[in-house]
Specification:
5-stranded antiparallel β-sheet, globular, mainly beta
Length: about 130
């Protein structure tokens, strides 16, 4: 084990990047969301602030979408000032910005991907028979 640097509050979260790198997320001591890319699974690039200026009061949650619409990861956090849940997707073009999902919570948040499948509908008319 080796340190990747930085000083975080709470537990860090990690996600796989499509290029094989690992992305580590956390909340720094200034309540900003930060990320550190671990190149080749061994070389950290150093923590940088996720753009957008959101201050948070929760640990960061991260999910890895299937790459639909170029989305690589999506992070979630609770806003420090309003307790609302926010999300920020990272796409192949970079961060898209924090979006307020509304609500108010005082607890930690969690996020997960769910599979949505559409079951085929089969319809067969019933044909009466005579004997």
């Amino acid at each position: 084990m080796s340190s990747i640097g930085g000083s975080l509050q709470g537990d860090p979260q990690a996600a796989n990047a499509p290029d094989g790198d690992v992305l580590v997320f956390g909340r720094d001591t200034s309540n900003q969301v930060v990320t550190n890319r671990i190149v080749g699974g061994a070389t950290p690039t150093g923590f940088t602030v996720v753009p957008g200026g959101l201050l948070v009061s929760s640990e960061i949650e991260v999910v890895e979408p299937s790459g639909a619409a170029g989305e690589l990861v999506r992070i979630f956090a609770r806003g420090l000032d309003d307790g609302a849940v926010y999300t920020n997707p990272m796409t192949t073009g970079g961060w898209t910005g924090w979006r307020n999902l509304g609500g108010f919570t005082t607890s930690e948040i969690s996020a997960a991907l769910t599979a949505v499948t559409k079951m085929p509908t089969v319809w067969s008319p019933v044909v009466p028979t005579t004997v």
